[in-house]
Amino acid sequence: MQMPYRRLGRSGLKVSALSFGSWVSFGAQLDSGLARDCMAAAWEGGVNFFDNAEAYASGESERLMGKAIEELGWNRQSYVVSTKFFWGLVDGVNSRNTLNRKYLLEAIDPSLERLGLDHVDLIFCHRPDPDTPVEETVHACSDIVSSGKALYWGTSEWPADDIRAAWEIAERHHLHKPVMEQPQYNMFERRKVERSYLRLYDEIGLGLTTWSPLASGLLSGKYLDAVPDDSRANLPGYEWLRDILTSGRYDQQVRQLLAIAQQLDATPAQLAIAWCAKNPHVSTVITGASKVAQVEENLGALAVLERLDDRVMARIEEVIA
């Protein structure tokens, strides 16, 4: 199946239904060569959106992606790159865990330098900041877009009320409005996408670039018996993830989903990714991989997407409801 492309919310920008993200893998699991090879495999499969963030691997993720793009020699008009701001890289009261104007305007240039680009397509406010007025953040993001250093801006893991407030401030002051939100979305994490944001899709044209379709690997089924040695759950600093993946809380549901995947001639990961992409409000599902084979497996979710008819979706709902 060919890659479908979807509008990012109400904007005219089109992104691939499946995209490629660098969280965890770039820097922690991938060197520059593997990062390039995985991005190349995604590109060859029709992926045009590559997601990143300033904080991923303390900036190293942006450097690896920038180096890969340079080596691959892609035409700038043919791909979409994002980054995110909030956590910061420099210690200080105005440079950590903030969305104030000073931090945002001083963060964009170093990020572009690491990526080797003169602009990114998307910037996300990586978390809400209760200490900074939303109006200040909206003005700063709008100014970054007006400067041409980013083309669109949005949010990540923001409450629905804050997204609406930001949009209304931008509307009232004739500023660039937030276009997209990046929430976690998978079979075990549905509340924001399916309930909290429901009115925002039609009322403000919110687009979604969702992350963690496999619930950090839980839905792949590979953690049912043991934690694989080469998995992210064994990385230093990810002990919290290991605890979640080995809790056994979802084992029964995962085993039932494995059976459904087998009947569809799909892997559990492909089923989980296709299920996310089935939601018409999702512009793109961000996938991750530490091996080219995983990229290729993820792309196989496109064929599974066609098999998710009402009957199959009802069966899945019985398991995960």
Question: What are the defining features of this structure?
Answer:
321 residues, alpha/beta, TIM Barrel, eight-stranded parallel beta barrel, two-stranded antiparallel ribbon, 14 helices, 44% helix, globular
Distance between the termini: 29 Å
CATH fold annotation:
TIM Barrel
Number of domains: 1
Name the CATH superfamily assignment.
NADP-dependent oxidoreductase domain
SSE sequence, one letter per element: EEEHHEHEHEHEHEHHEHHHEHHH
Radius of gyration: 19 Å
Number of helices: 14
Class of secondary structure makeup: alpha/beta
State the shape: globular
CATH class category name:
Alpha Beta
What average pLDDT do the residues reach? 93
Strand content: 5-15%
The largest β sheet comes out as:
8 strands, parallel, barrel
Sequence stretches where pLDDT stays below 50 over 5 or more residues: none
Numbering strands along the chain, what is their spatial order in the largest sheet?
3-4-5-6-7-8-9-10
Helix coverage percent: 40-55%
Q: At CATH's second level, what is the architecture?
A: Alpha-Beta Barrel
